Amino acid sequence: MSRRDLTLLTDLYELTMMQGYYEQGQNETVIFDVFFRQNPCNNGYSVCAGLDQVIDYIKNLNFTYDDVDYLRSLGIFSEDFLHYLSGFHFSGDIYAIPEGTVIFPKEPLLKVVAPIMEAQLVETAILNIINHQSLIATKTSRIVFAANGDGIMEFGLRRAQGPDAGLYGARAAMIGGCVGTSNVLAGQLFDVPVMGTHAHSWIMSFKDEYSAFRAYAEMYPDNCTLLVDTYDTLKSGVPNAIRVFKEMKEEGVHFKKYGIRLDSGDLAYLSKEARKMLDTAGFSDATITASNDLDEYLLHDLKMQGAAINSWGVGTNLITSKDCPSFGGVYKLAAIQNEDGEFIPKIKISENTEKITNPGNKTIYRIYDKTTGKVKADLICFVGETYDTNEDLLLFDPIETWKKTKLPGGSYTMREILVPVFKNGECVYKSPSVKEIAAYCRQEKKTLWEETKRLFYPHRVYVDLSQKLYEVKKSLLDQISATN
Amino acid sequence: MSRRDLTLLTDLYELTMMQGYYEQGQNETVIFDVFFRQNPCNNGYSVCAGLDQVIDYIKNLNFTYDDVDYLRSLGIFSEDFLHYLSGFHFSGDIYAIPEGTVIFPKEPLLKVVAPIMEAQLVETAILNIINHQSLIATKTSRIVFAANGDGIMEFGLRRAQGPDAGLYGARAAMIGGCVGTSNVLAGQLFDVPVMGTHAHSWIMSFKDEYSAFRAYAEMYPDNCTLLVDTYDTLKSGVPNAIRVFKEMKEEGVHFKKYGIRLDSGDLAYLSKEARKMLDTAGFSDATITASNDLDEYLLHDLKMQGAAINSWGVGTNLITSKDCPSFGGVYKLAAIQNEDGEFIPKIKISENTEKITNPGNKTIYRIYDKTTGKVKADLICFVGETYDTNEDLLLFDPIETWKKTKLPGGSYTMREILVPVFKNGECVYKSPSVKEIAAYCRQEKKTLWEETKRLFYPHRVYVDLSQKLYEVKKSLLDQISATN
């Protein structure tokens, strides 16, 4: 609710572990990876977002006197440790995939390389920010895909999970492809288009619907969208809207953008009837906007049924990602540096093969088909592994290893997608504007095959491991099972 | 970073409507009601929360120069109106049901009585705040109910929908009945217990599990909960924990609170096995904490199967209210004051009878059975209607009006639950502390019948209308249908 530093926005155990490391004199450099295991809503890809807020968070990390006093009051921290905290700043490196990039499960979308005490502290807030914005950017992408070129407006502020969820949700929605938001604060802070017209209460506060429409049309000839469902959409709302459009035309007023908004009833039926009425009256350029509990599934169905809707306002289902309200990003230890400066890979095992982490200091290459420019696969490898795209590249599934593909040399291109964001505690990355990120995200989606963008049962993009990474992982697993 | 007022955290249409009213010279006093139509998760009741943040919001309403400049840049607002905004403050009245009260669908849980321009502006932020916190308080109540006396800890920050969702979600979770939160900032700001121990990364950063446990136990004898599932829960984790507990005991260390945490695998089976092992080793007072994708349904089932778990950490499903991530609070015009100072009731009709609003300037009485102290029903009536509890009270269902109950005089008590919060723009209400609200909420739930608290198909509490309100509503509906 306030733009306050978020240093204490962390789980208590980050601090108890930090003190543990402090007391042990243990502060080796480690690597933590942020990754997720499944795309939300069974989508074929995700869109990462939130990095700019992570940067702000890291830059502003700092325990104030009040913070230290509060921690002292808990009675579990030593004065030495509290003294250490009062001088705390982040001194490590962060690498991340830029916002708006399409991403896939299991690849590190953010990597923290820092002394363990620092790397541990930042876990919770980084996950909170990235999980939230990536969720909403991904959900929005689905809704935008279903709209097949129609504009989607983000209208969810009143149903968002608190002020930040509304504000940063609107930001993520713009990255995911919305044409605008109703959220004025988001417009101010992120320089994105704000949109909206009037509510039922506007109509109800006038003596009748016609007078309310007329007053609104006189005020807002540049963008006059009249809400037609307060009393009866087809018997009262649309006829009154047409009457006002006619009067204004006769009086020589030229609307820049005008039309009606439907907010209840069967949107397919009502929009088709309203379209006929508007066309017959000579207003074929009037837009029909719809709202009311929309999501990608209903939108997809309404389009299939030929709903005559040009513009969609989506609220609750977008801003909360209602059918899948969390993005399961996790933060896992991948390596610990030894005295020689070498990163020793670490692995977290699990009964569930899918949950076993990828060890070591890694990066990611995205591989494109040279002819089409479409994504072939992502390749996770150790930092420092090099590839010559003139040579054949053998990709194999890291679990079902018999699934192999050979890409002939010269047929593909590669691009490293993890980029440096912090180096030795200094930010070395300049975030693009939200509009630029949104434009980049549109381009990113063009690199996906249509089969991957499908709403239902999309084709999976492969995320493979380099031969070297695969072997290290396998040998760590063998070591552990030998010990048990 | 400084505390930011949320004045622009509103939908654009609130501002375009405001300007509309401004240009029309229309600023009569109106009444808007906040109410909801359905309890989240098909619960039998909801818990209202968020009022303290609404109070902050209203107190801090103020358009700064930057805000006005931004609005000017949109090119849709007149200089006169912008000048009016720069001097804006809230001058109206607000009534609300205090936080932590159990509430039911369709009753106004907050009522704004203010000039229409002011009342319209505050819609979005009020709904955002109340919807979020009431959702999480209600979801938490369900989870706490399923735990049947065990403590529930809020562990969801990393999966919350942004920083505020984590922070105010933790606040609402405490109101709903959690015993603590992992969220340190929530602990600092709301003076509530913070909890937590260590993560898998702690274990992995030591040469082996035993050393990690040992180091932790030495550091935190007051609250030593060891996470036992990093390698193998029953073969490695629990035996190593027992070894450390034994050693520490032999060394004369007395743990205040100690035990293990399970975070994967089958929690029913593992907890029962771990319980046996701990008991056999003489640690029958060691607690077993569980986490890992818990919600009220799984918790209910685990309890049914005799899981030996004393304490539960609940994350994603609580902090996002995963199966129902929005609380459908709406803000509807209920009355407009005429020149004589009389409130003329307004009604919003709908094809759907359930969606028709209750008109007029209303209040709510909660009716209790005098003998048991349990809630009999809520009664919505006009402000000023009086009741004598020595007389019989006839209640009837506002839709199926033949459903009637007569409460004999002397058998019931009544309490008005809407209280004044702002009068003429001045705050006249002092919010209790979160701990006080949580204690009050526990009392509130005791006034509900067990049948209403049930997780599945709970018994509905009736919300009835007074005879007078019913008649006014009916006559407004008749008028409207006569016009069509």
Describe this structure as you would to a colleague:
Chains A, B: Belongs to the NAPRTase family. Chains A, B: Residues 8-131 form the Nicotinate phosphoribosyltransferase N-terminal domain. Chains A, B: This is Nicotinate phosphoribosyltransferase. The structure is a homodimer of 484-residue chains. Chain A is an alpha/beta fold. Chain A has two domains: 12-136 and 325-483, nicotinate phosphoribosyltransferase (Alpha-Beta Barrel), CATH 3.20.140; 197-292, Alpha-Beta Barrel (TIM Barrel), CATH 3.20.20. Chain A is 38% helix and 20% strand. In chain A, strands 13-12-1-5-3-19-20 form a seven-stranded antiparallel sheet. Chain A is globular, with a radius of gyration of 26 Å. The relative contact order of chain A is 0.15. The model of chain A has no long low-confidence stretch (mean pLDDT 95). At the A-B interface, α1, α3, α6, α7 and α8 of A face α1, α3, α6, α7 and α8 of B.
